[in-house]
Design goal:
Blueprint lengths: L5 H17 L12 E2 L23 E2 L4 E2 L5 H11 L18 E2 L19 H5 L67
Antiparallel strand pairs: 1-4, 2-3
């Protein structure tokens, strides 16, 4: 029995055929499921880290508020920049075989972007002075959706060792004076209620 409805199998087959044609790969029978495997921890350190860092895969979106998460066909294009058969410096990292990244199993599509909570936040402004690792930590081997930590909504004061807004917005490093105590500094708009 298939893990995907027939219409989705046809869509997956068409997507695979396009990807194979685009990158000059031979087309093989498309599996009934296209569950993917990805481990952020393998891409954040050492030889696995892209020269340009996180922005090699995650592009700015919504005027710098969010960053994209590659999924579907965009994931193929993104991954093939470093891992394709013709990619430079990808010795031992060729992913031209579907089974390198895909296995049989129940299909669960990754989200295409993380939620932006009702805060006045911009990745573009923060990455001008900070690295991604100041707020996000990769978790090796964690399940999809839990591979990279992030400050949680309303995490003004996080547990020890966890990233929080207050780590920097403490009146010394950012938001001088009492600005952190003024809720509307981060939470503007008509939907913010106390």
């Amino acid at each position: 029995m298939s893990a995907l409805p027939p219409a989705r199998i046809e869509c997956a087959a068409a997507e695979a055929a396009r990807s194979h044609a685009l990158f000059g790969l031979s087309h093989t029978t498309v599996r009934r499921s296209i569950e993917s495997r990805f481990d952020h921890a393998r891409h954040t350190n050492g030889a696995g880290r892209p020269a340009t860092g996180c922005v090699a895969c995650h592009k700015s979106e919504r005027r710098g508020v969010g960053l994209t998460i590659p999924a579907g066909a965009s994931a193929h294009v993104t991954c093939y920049q470093c891992h394709g058969p013709r990619a430079q410096g990808s010795a031992g990292q060729d992913i031209s075989s579907c089974s390198t990244c895909h296995s049989t199993g129940r299909l669960t599509r990754p989200p295409t972007l993380a939620p932006a909570y009702r805060v006045n936040f911009s990745h573009a402004k923060h990455t001008a002075k900070l690295s991604c690792a100041d707020c996000h930590q990769p978790r090796a081997g964690a399940a999809r959706g839990r591979q990279v930590s992030a400050p949680q909504p309303l995490m003004h004061h996080a547990p020890a060792g966890a990233a929080s807004c207050a780590a920097c917005h403490n009146g010394r490093r950012a938001f001088g004076g009492d600005d952190f105590m003024v809720c509307t500094r981060c939470h503007p708009g008509p939907f913010w209620h106390f």
